[in-house]
Amino acid sequence: MPRRIESHDIPGPAGRLEALLEEPEGREPHTAAVVCHPHPLFGGTLHNKVVYRMARGLRRAGVVVLRFNFRGVGRSQGEHAHLEGEIEDARTALSWLQERYPALPYGLAGFSFGARAITRLGCQLNGETPPRWLLAAGFPTSRFGPAEYLYQCALEKIFIQSIVDQYGPRAELEAEFRRLPEPKRLIWIEATDHFFAGALDAFETAVHEAVPPY
Question: Do the beta carbons of residue 185 and residue 159 sit within 8 Å?
C-alpha cells in the first residue's frame, strides 16, 4: 500500500490554513498527530527539512501526520500573531484531524517555534481528552518567554535536541528538564546546530523510535 498524501485547505481562525495529510506506508495508523513548523517570520514552513523528517519518522512509526502552514505562511491566510494566534491555528488543525480520524488517539509534535506552540496547546488540553504525547524538537528555552506552563503538565513529554543548539543550549534545557514532572524523556542528537545539521538521519530515527508502538 503506497503512502497516501492529500492537500487540504482547513478553515482556520484567521482564514484558510494550507495543510498536507500523510498516512503511513503499508499499514493502518494507530495514532494521529499534528506537526508544527518553525518561526513563520524566519522562513519556517510545513516544508522545513526538520519538520519533513519529523513527519517521516512519525509515519514510519505508524502515525498519520497533518502538517500545516501557520497563518500568513504559504497559502495560509492571515498575519503572524506572535505565538498566541498560531496556537489557535494548531488547535483548529487538531480539531480537523480528530474529525477525520475520530477513533484514533492523538499526539502533538513541533520543531522550534512549533515546539513551543504544541507544548502550550497540549498542556492546555491536559484536562480534556489529552494527547498521548508531546514531541518537541529544538525546544527554545527562553526565546518565547519562560516555559513554566510545563512544570505542572502531566502529559508524556519527549524532547529531541541537538547537542549544539543556539536557541536551546544544552545546559539551559537540562536545567528546565529537571524541573518537569514525569513522564518525560530527553534525547540528544550529535548535530552541529539548531537545525540538526549533519544529523537529520539520526534525528528521524530518534523520532521513529521515540513514539510508543501502540
Answer: yes
Reported as a single tens digit per residue, the pLDDT across 158-181 is 999 999 999 999 999 999 999 999
Domain containing 150: what range? 5-210
Instruction: Specify the pairing of strand 184-189 against strand 15-22.
Output: unpaired
**pTM check: above 0.90:** yes
Residue 52's CATH number: 3.40.50.1820
Query: How many domains, the chain?
Result: 1
C-alpha cell at 29: 495508523
* Grid cell for residue 180: 518537569
Q: Which residues pair with 31 in a beta bridge?
A: 63
- Verify cis geometry, omega within 30 degrees of 0, for the bond prior to 24: no
Residue of 70, 135, 130 lying closest to 108 (CA atoms): 135
H or E segment at 187? Answer: strand 184-189
